[in-house]
Write a structure and sequence with these properties.
The protein is an alpha+beta fold. Helix content is 20%, strand content 25%. The strands form 11 sheets. Strands 2, 5, 7, 8, 9, 10, 14, 15 and 16 form a 9-stranded mixed beta sheet that branches. Strands 1, 3, 4, 6, 11, 12, 13 and 17 form an 8-stranded antiparallel beta sheet that branches. Strands 18-22-21-20-26-48 form a 6-stranded parallel beta sheet. A hairpin with a 3-residue loop joins strand 3 and strand 4. Helix 2 (45-60) runs antiparallel to helix 3, helix 5 packs across helix 13 and helix 13 (800-820) crosses helix 14. The longest helix is centred in the last third of the chain and has 23 residues, at 624-646. The protein is globular. The two termini are 45 Å apart.
Length: 856
């Protein structure tokens, strides 16, 4: 049977679509592919996708015509390095000596080894030209990496210290810019007779260099400079990209950097087979469909694939990147004890740590810091069969699951909004929203149970616990004047009362009698104070910005400033959320090697911060169009908060807060390929994933409670598939009104961070039942994020390392079901599932799953 979707808007009911078009390669990409094949290398489908996306984005930004020669020195095969990307066969590189080509990384130049571009510096228009380099390492701060010059004039560019010569003048950026390590994407642009601008990673370093004289006409070298006809200045340096061409504005150069580095990251880490939304094939047959490109969804697909199954990884409604939150700002993984993280979850963390250039901690606390682009790279490598341990899994971006077709209690196929149908024997929902679950006729829950409703949970229910000392009314003291923005009226609830509902196929079948709530959402932002990694914030306000919307924040800041003059920061230490509370945002530990520049994972505090409290309640059940509106509203709220802190001239913004805000910038290494699709568009450097902490939760045969996690009651099942280890954590649900004894004040409802969990061993077994719906509802569906737990318990179980363990179990369950065809709920744990989980360890550097069956 087909699930009835008549109650949903037309966009959600599916549509009959004809054959879908195949991926259209750009003509320039086809020329490059042909040139590569002529040199003996036939690109794989995933590699073609990565290169084609570079051409497509370059053309969309009007940049391809501004490049005369471009060479990707890091390549999937050494044969591709010499090819001029923009005009294969013209200005292809000729090697002098033996530049060391390192597959996937770049070219290392020492002594007199270099490439001749075949271009003359005189071929460039002196007053409309650029030189660009991307460098990953340089041993000397005087090394010239591209150029041609004589004693008085020429074109040269050295990455370290930003040394640039364009005509007769030689310019070195001010040492205060602190760019001496030479890493990054450096572009020198001469856009007039009197100006040369120098940009690094999309940020202008210097624009006051006035060149003089003409330009010498000599062959341009890469890896060193051509000084009066001879190689000069080559020292040990690792270059990944070089180009020459006409001038670009600062905004264009920023796009050029982002587009090119995105290609390099694909080459560096992996080029899986990706199919864009709305492209062929129209129908896909697989053994397993894993829905959602989250860590849990990816690990489920990966485990099934390495067990020999045919797997389709189907992206969720806005997925265009692998890795969910781990690739979108969650630099700092929430893990309790390292010893309790096992299996592929542990292996993924290890892989990311290694790729990030760090050594994992030998202590019992995991080394859990990883730059998001590296995390995404680790997931890319898992899905590229050309990489070590990579599996051949095709990724299908979609615009979201639309309809689910069932035969009795089994899913037969799913159809996506963009017109594809996926058929499989077993399905997995790894998405944050649980859209596949919601369309499969499975019961789920949104909101908070009552305190004491299940096993005596004290953390659940309504709890306006924190007095902000802020008057909630537009006119202070006057309740008739209305509430200030983003403060909700006090609900008709007593402390501990429930505010949840249950649904089947999107239809509400139970309601506790109040509006449904959920944890707030925000964006985990990657920021830095290191100029080597910085990209500027926009100095303009976001669409719809109105300072009046931030009245709660301004009043709260004023109260804080009055209590502690000069004590407020823009971003405080991570402990500020609990102790000092000095920053309006919090930061975590820094991933990356200090010498390369640190970036920070910026999160919300437990006070008015980047969590948009109470404004996401409609999100879990919203159709995709309404959900997109909420997503974009959250984005603009966040950008508005940054703008208010940095740029708005209001005297109500504390001076210390504004001064600290001026020290911070976007991390220029992150979020370089922003979403563009039917649900909106994102700016460069802004996180590509909304932090959906919670929403839908399965209602299975077993519901995990906080008291199970705190070991106040025995675990209900010994069918363990992984271990959970982290405090019970819920961010503030909403700002509301409460009289704390001194009149009405803004009260914060629902936050908790309970560290009394896990018993003596610091962890709790996760039984298989929490990832399964009831058998009568669906027999061939598993889930790794939307699981059967109360609001309070979900505060721990929602962590990515837990989801990856459940995802691995889902892959093993799919393998067993492929052999037996029985219901997932009927799999024999002791004789089938547990032995398979233990045996799933494949790689020498992979640990076993931790399958403790009792609390301890």
């Amino acid at each position: 049977m087909s699930i009835n979707r008549a109650h949903l808007p037309a966009m959600q009911r599916g549509k009959v679509m004809g054959p879908l078009p195949g991926l259209a390669y750009e003509p320039e990409a086809l020329a490059f592919f042909a040139a590569a094949k002529g040199r003996g290398y036939d690109l794989a489908v995933g590699e073609k996708y990565a290169y084609n996306r570079w051409y497509k984005r370059m053309k969309a930004q009007g940049l391809l015509g501004k490049v005369q020669g471009a060479w990707m020195l890091a390549s999937v095969d050494p044969a591709l390095v010499p090819i001029n990307l923009v005009a294969p066969g013209t200005y292809d590189l000729t090697a002098a000596g033996s530049p060391k080509i390192i597959r996937h990384e770049g070219c290392r130049f020492t002594d007199d080894n270099y490439f001749d571009t075949g271009l003359l510096s005189g071929d460039l228009t002196a007053e409309d030209s650029h030189l660009a380099l991307m460098c990953e390492d340089v041993s000397s701060n005087t090394a010239t990496a591209i150029g041609a010059y004589d004693a008085s004039e020429g074109y040269t560019l050295a990455p370290a210290q930003g040394r640039v010569r364009m005509a007769a003048s030689l310019k070195t950026t001010d040492s205060a810019q602190d760019v001496a390590d030479g890493r990054g994407f450096l572009i020198a642009v001469r856009d007039s007779a009197s100006n040369v601008r120098l940009d690094r990673n999309g940020k202008t370093l210097d624009s006051v260099y006035s060149p003089t004289g003409t330009v010498v006409s000599r062959p341009l070298y890469i890896g060193c400079a051509n000084f009066e006809g001879a190689a000069s200045g080559a020292t040990d340096q690792l270059l990944t990209f070089a180009s020459v061409g006409s001038s670009m504005t600062a905004a264009e150069a920023q796009q050029y950097y982002a587009i090119t580095r995105t290609l390099w990251l694909a080459i560096r880490y992996g080029c899986p087979d990706i199919r864009d939304a709305g492209t062929a094939p129209h129908e896909v047959e697989a053994d397993v469909v894993s829905y959602g490109a989250t860590p849990g969804g990816i690990v489920a697909a990966y485990e099934a694939a390495r067990q020999g199954l045919r797997v389709a990884l189907v992206g969720g409604w806005r997925d265009r990147h692998l890795g969910g939150m781990m690739a979108a700002g969650l630099n700092h993984l929430d893990i309790g004890l390292d010893a309790l993280v096992g299996g592929l979850s542990d292996w993924v963390v290890d892989t990311q740590t290694r790729l990030n250039g760090e050594v994992r901690s030998a202590s019992n606390v995991v080394q859990r810091n990883c730059e998001p682009h590296v995390a995404e790279g680790a997931f890319r490598s898992m899905l590229d069969p050309k990489r070590k341990h990579g599996q051949a899994i095709t990724i299908y971006w979609t615009d979201g699951v639309d309809t689910v077709q069932k035969d009795g209690a089994e899913i037969v196929s799913i159809t996506t909004v963009d017109g594809r149908t996926f058929r499989a024997a077993t399905f997995h929902d790894g998405s944050y929203e649980g859209d596949l679950i919601a369309r499969a006729g499975v019961r789920y829950r949104i909101g908070r149970e009552a305190a004491g409703e299940l096993a005596g949970e004290a953390l659940n229910g309504y709890n306006p616990y924190y007095d902000t000392k802020v008057d909630p009314y537009n006119t202070p003291g006057d309740s008739g004047s209305g509430l200030i923005p983003w403060v909700s009226p006090a609900p008709a609830l007593a402390i501990g009362d429930a505010d949840y509902a249950e649904y089947i196929d999107g239809v509400e079948v139970y309601n506790s009698g109040t509006p449904v709530t959920t944890q707030p959402y925000n964006f985990r932002m990657s920021m830095t104070t290191d100029p080597r990694r910085a990209a500027d914030f926009d100095t303009n306000p976001p669409p719809g910005y109105d300072i009046a919307d931030y009245e709660l924040y301004l009043r709260y800041w004023e109260a804080r400033e009055a209590a502690n003059p000069g004590g407020m920061d823009f971003i405080g230490d991570s402990t500020d959320t609990v102790v000092a509370d000095q920053g309006i945002l919090s930061r975590t530990s820094s991933p990356g090697v200090a010498a390369y520049g640190m970036i920070r994972d910026i999160n919300s505090t437990s006070r008015p911060s980047s969590d948009w409290m109470g404004q996401n309640f409609a999100y879990p059940e919203a159709d995709y169009s309404a959900r997109a509106t909420l997503w974009n509203d959250h984005k603009n709220f966040t950008l508005g908060l940054i703008y208010l802190s940095r740029h708005n001239p209001s005297p109500r913004v504390p001076a210390s807060l504004r001064a600290d805000a001026q020290l911070w910038s976007w991390a220029g290494s992150e979020n370089l390929d922003p979403y563009e699709g039917p649900y909106g568009s994102d700016p460069l450097f802004f996180p590509k994933q909304l932090y959906v902490r919670a929403g839908r939760r399965l209602v299975g045969e077993l519901i995990m409670t906080a008291d199970h996690l705190k070991e106040l009651v025995p675990i209900l099942s010994t069918k363990t598939v992984g271990m959970s280890s982290y405090p019970l954590d819920s961010h503030v649900v909403r700002a509301t009104v409460r009289d704390f004894g001194n009149g009405d004040r803004v009260a914060l409802d629902g936050g908790f961070f309970d560290q009394t969990y896990g018993g003596a061993d610091g962890g709790t077994p996760m039984p298989v039942e929490i990832m399964l719906p009831k058998k009568a509802e669906c027999e061939n569906l598993t889930s790794s994020f939307v699981i059967s737990a109360t609001h309070a318990a979900n505060g721990q179980l929602r962590m990515e390392v837990s989801s990856m363990q459940l995802g691995q179990a889902a892959g093993v369950i799919a393998t067993i079901r492929h052999e037996s065809s029985g219901a997932v709920q009927d799999i024999d744990y002791e004789n089938e599932l547990r032995p398979r989980l233990v045996a799933s360890k494949r790689w020498y550097d992979e640990s076993s799953l931790i399958l403790t069956q009792t609390t301890g």
